[in-house]
Amino acid sequence: MTGCERVIALLGDYVSGELPALVRADVDQHLSTCPTCSAALAEYRAVVRLAASLPPPTPSPAAEARILAALRAATALPDGGTMDETQLEIALPASGPTG
Predict the structure, then answer these.
(1) Which residues lie below 8 Å from residue 97, measured CB to CB, with a gap of 6+?
(2) What predicted TM-score, i.e. pTM, was given to this entire model?
(3) Nearest to 75 by CA among 63, 62, 87, 59
């Protein structure tokens, strides 16, 4: 793997601050001397900014019904019943995306 291939593969972790300090220093060094990878970093950051500006996805009614059916099946009670929507909301609170 070339230096550029390695840096491109690490851009996600680089931008999110998840690289160990020594690896980040290596990537910083490479970026300081490589216009191709610096341009790729700028494009990656632009895509991340654009994605962050989008509204969260809303499932269609059909998708929501399939999700709820799968949750009911996965949360079947020992007596053969299933949790109602209130119990599901308590067991699986809406918390939005993590990360």
Answers:
(1) 56
(2) 0.58
(3) 87
